[in-house]
Amino acid sequence: MDVTFVITRVLEGFAIVAFGGLALLPLLRRMQFKQHAYEDAPETHQKKTGTPTMGGVLFALAMLPMLASWSVPFEAALFTLVVLCASIGFVDDLMGIKLGRNKGLSARTKFLATALVAIVFLRAITDSYAYFPRDVIFHAGAFVLTVPHWLWVLLGIIAVTGTIHAVNLTDGLDGLATGTMLPPLIVLAAIGMALPMVAPTEAALLGIGACLGFLLYNRHPAKMFMGDTGSLALGGLLSGIAIVEGEMLLLILIGGVFVAEALSVILQVWYFKATGGKRIFRMSPLHHHFELGGLPETVVTFRFWAASLVLSLLGWVLVR
Description:
mainly alpha, 2 strands, about 65% helix, globular
């Protein structure tokens, strides 16, 4: 894998999303696939109602170049994971649009569906583990941490479903999830090149290009939202690459922003129930807490991007 491979894959992902968006955006408008702001979101978010959504189908399309190397170990598994996650998100988004409110599939249904996809994915890559040490959850240099296979499967299901839903929660501000995803993908691409492993590296590079291309439409003020179609696809992509590379535990660090967003919701709900209505945060997920504290949306987004960059750099220093 040389510089040409890296540049080509990033440009492919970027071009598919950037040019695909030119065709998709008017189509979404014509089909009335528009965002409905959450009723309990900050008041400033009500103006986002009507913005075309479901742009996340572009992330699934950005993985199409992987079909050219389908016989490479893990290519089929990673491609299928992203497409299936995007499909679950697509159904969720479509139901929300038809119902006229920002609520489609129930949380339990999405969790069970993504858990099933995770099991299918883990089974698929287990069959290909002749190409990489089995049951690895973390490695740094010569240090390799493995666990019993049953525990690896359990942790893998948690990693996939947890990452998917954490990214979904993070997708609440213009460009927030898209930009936050870039540093972890860059680190995983670097790890993949160092191993070397073609499939996860290619998937990460295509994802980097796709996120850069989507920011053309998703940066503030957003012309298009990814919807659950996109956030579930990105969550599946990030977790799938990390698992294949044997860096499942590293997700906690390089995906620290997503972890913080998910924890803020869990803690808020627990504390609210335990205290009979009191709150830890002004609003969860965490980005809304800072918004209600007076920070402009763009400032919150840039600070979360910066936090993702710092955490990803720390992750790279840890494993190199």
